Prior knowledge:
It is a single chain. The chain is an alpha/beta fold. It has a domain at 157-366: von Willebrand factor, type A domain (Rossmann fold). 33% of the residues lie in helices and 17% in strands. α7 (288-301) links the parallel β9 (274-279) and β10. α4 runs antiparallel to α5 (239-250) and α6 runs parallel beside α7 (288-301). The longest helix is centred in the N-terminal third of the chain and has 25 residues, at 80-104.
Amino acid sequence: MPKLPENQPAAASRPPDLGIDLPQRTTPALLFSVLLHVLLLLAIGLFYSSTPSGTGGTADRPAGIALVHRMPDRDRYQDAKESTAATEAEAAASQIDSSAAASAAPPADLSPPIDLAGLLQAMEATPSPQSGTGLAGETSLTGDAFGSQAGKRSAASSDQSTAMMFGISGSGSEFVYVMDRSDSMNGFNGRPLRAAKAELLRSLRSLSEHQRFQIIFYNDKPSPFRPSGMGFQMVPGESSIVTVAEQYVKSITAFGGTEHQSALHLALRMAPDVIFFLTDASIPRLSASELAEIQRRALRSGTTIHAIEFGTDAVAPRGSFLNDLAAQNNGSYQYVDVQKLLSPASVIDATGASYDAHAGDGAGTRDRSNSAGQQ
């Protein structure tokens, strides 16, 4: 067997010859392939970057900045441009108004003309002193002189009248009766309430159609007289109104506690000429501050307050707040012993005159033997 040359492999280790010539890659072809792929990648990137986002349709409204105002029940949106424009417009308008006001204002040293007619009318309407020398600090206004004029409308002389309650007289054109209806008025078999109602009816019947009145019964709270179709107001003393008032008074019953202040404040809201205040309750007392507040309101409305106290003592108690109430408001104070309401001399006034406040007939009569000194 002949030997093969040493530099040639054996037949078993040589690949078989398939008859196909494989092409050899050259460097230019490789570079062209890389360049082609790079160009494709760039083209794809440009395509996606230029495609618009969203729906692709035409925008239906412009975009802008909105201000949100948070409210308890909703949110209110306002365009920032509109808000800025409104602020600028308000500032301009304010500047214009300020300039106009400054130009229209009168000079600082200009004094207003004197209203001589108004001053004369005010002087004529001022009440003259009823007593005293007329010097400052020496004028004495007593009874209803102050209450019927100061701080109030001037009433015609034909509208003035005198009303009475348990021997106390009050002059004016408007009267408010503030009457206690607490449970204590049921004592002594109901005589205090019956006597108070009878005297009230007698006083109402003495009014004329030119006067006006109001009735406030109270216990824990006030209960004013309100005719049908009328609110809480002063009502005329016409016979038809008085008839309705009589039915109202007769229907009143006594119960509950006592609260003076609210009833008096309600009466002072009417700004009457005279208030007749009747109660049998020395407790609870009105404090000094409460009395001062009532006095301030009465002074502002020009109201006189007369106080009538029912009690079980033979003589008036000392230090009664009702005496202070009357004294501070140009009024009179009267004490009534409820144990003697049915006797002919049940009421003794400041002059010593006796007054019969019989609860059954509704028309008290004065004791003529002692009436000379009575107002």
